[in-house]
Amino acid sequence: MSYVFEPRDVISVPVAGSTERFPVNNIYCVGRNYADHAIEMGFDPDREAPFFFMKPAYAVLSDDAEMKYPAHSSDVHHEVELVVALHHGGTNISVDEAMSLVYAYGVGVDMTRRDLQAEAKEKSRPWEAGKTFLHAAPCAALHKLSEVGQLNEAVITLRINGETRQAGDVNQMIWKVPEIISRLSELFVLQPGDMIYTGTPAGVGPVLPGDQITAHIVGLSELSFKVSSS
Ligand code: MN
Description:
This protein has 230 residues and is α+β, with helices and mostly antiparallel strands.
């Protein structure tokens, strides 16, 4: 058996303290999973539940590489998020068994062309142009669940050029990690290699070429990358 062209190289992220890398499959993201961020975007978290969208694997940026500022936007925003990496998949996974799918946690940033997302919202169109582009999903080295535990509480922060822009705690998530996995598995087919960006606390805002972004969750490797012009 042969293919009509060489399949693309596997996209992967590093695993902390290991020479092994985590191969990335699909990337799921949770929208408005922190009440204070839902409110800053003009929504009432008591009236509307979180929801999902996706990014392609090629959006991943790892190993502290530079992030290219994307085309067709002058308002690219940072959203620091806890990333959940799965080594097992499945459908209709219960909340109780959900954590058995989790391999590791990491720090990620859901980069967003906010101007294109705002236009999509206004016209009731899909979000891809706002959420998908090369380097739209920076991710730090992953830490195995067996080493860091459940991580139900941990301070999550994002700084630009050393100045704090976002600060929260992962315990503020509306849907907790097991609930997110269970709901995703009812809607979609979860697979090994899937990563889940679990939502962002308040304080989102623009990044500019030349900025140094540092994102941190206590207990995990820091994510640090520079934004370069397109
Ligand atoms: Mn987000």
